[in-house]
Amino acid sequence: MSERVIRKSWDDIKPRQEVLDALDDVADEELERDIREDPDVAPILDEAWFRDAELLPARKMPVSLRLDPDILAFFKNQGPGYQTRINGVLRRYMEAVQRQERG
């Protein structure tokens, strides 16, 4: 299998001067506003971001819970992590009820 090589000169690929001039005309404030309003922009990970980051939730609390045998079998048959999956189902239910209560 032969590879097709395409050669280009610097004149073919260097940025055109009119594009560079247009970028120079954009004010810093306008660029900063566009960045703030862009929903796809990644957060700036500066010292303040790390200071204000949410702490991880507390460890889960061990409880004794009575479940119907078929419910427990269903989750256990899913393999390791069944308790985490049960917790996830309960969390989604809790969040749905809270959303309804808020209206």
Write the layout of secondary structure elements.
Layout: H1 10-13, H2 17-25, H3 28-37, H4 47-52, H5 69-77, H6 82-102
What does this protein structure show overall?
The protein is mostly helical. The protein has one domain. It is 57% helix and 0% strand. The chain contains 6 helices and no strands. It has helices spanning 10-13, 17-25, 28-37, 47-52, 69-77, 82-102. The radius of gyration is 28 Å and the shape is elongated. It starts with 9 loop residues before the first helix and ends with a helix. This is BrnA antitoxin of type II toxin-antitoxin system. InterPro entries: BrnA_antitoxin.
Which key features would you list for this structure?
about 100 residues
Tell how many strands the DSSP assignment holds.
Answer: 0
N to C succession of SSEs: HHHHHH
Q: What's the overall geometry?
A: elongated
Helix content: 55-70%
Q: Kindly name the structural category.
A: mainly alpha
* Uncertain ranges: none
What proportion of the residues form beta strands (DSSP E)? Answer: under 5%
| Biggest sheet details | none
Radius of gyration: 28 Å
Quickly count the helices: 6
Give the tally of structural domains: 1
Q: Calculate the mean pLDDT score and round it.
A: 84
InterPro entries: BrnA_antitoxin
Protein name: BrnA antitoxin of type II toxin-antitoxin system
Pfam families: BrnA_antitoxin
Organism: Rhodospira trueperi
